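Support reply, case 0932

Customer input (verbatim):
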Amino acid sequence: MNLILLLEEDFTGPGRVRLTGRRLRHVLEVHRASVGGELTVGLLGGEMGRGRVTAVEPDLCMDVELHLPPPPKLPLKLVLALPRPKVLNRVLAAATSLGVAEIHLVNAWKVEKSYWGSPRLSEDNLLLQRVLGLEQARDTVLPPLVLHRLLRPFAENVLPGLIEGTLPILAHPGADEPCPRTPTGPVTLVIGPEGGFIPAEVELFVRGGCRAFTLGERILRVETAVAALAGRLF
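Our regenerated output:
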């Protein structure tokens, strides 16, 4: 991890923290922290700074100074058809590390019903994957994540408000118009399952205000499409 993400409960006093669990193991085993060493730290939802290790036994303790703002988010809302469970973790961590401001997971005809019952959709796992993305990118602000199990109510009732004030892009392999580059304002990006949404779903998104664009003839994996489109747009 490139940043040690701190929680309010880690603080034992003003400017003093004690690490536990996964972060403690990482700092000891990967960073090989020793007394006097410094680490990049940040408070979840707050500022970043440096932590100086004051003890490693029996607990790892640090004196921390937080004074730097986290990096700005991309002006990008991501609407993503729920990917396969083994892909979901990678996509959430990658989208968070890229700086996506908001994430919505939606249903689609090509999304298997069993995906919605996966333990990877547990609140704890969804939080962990975004935390891993923050640690990778040296960020402290979690992107909100909302699950929508019914596509039509989302497209008809949620989507119009979501895309307001943004360029609403539906990434679809069958579209004729190429995806724009570096638009001047915020973007709402909709990405379907591998192979894209079915025609009825595309029509549903278009009626909701989206414009269909293509990245070309190649069919990309979901995680590749997210990274490629974020790089193209921003």
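We compared this against your earlier run and they match. Two observations from our side: The mean pLDDT is 95. The two ends are 24 Å apart (CA to CA). Please reopen the case if you see a mismatch on your end.
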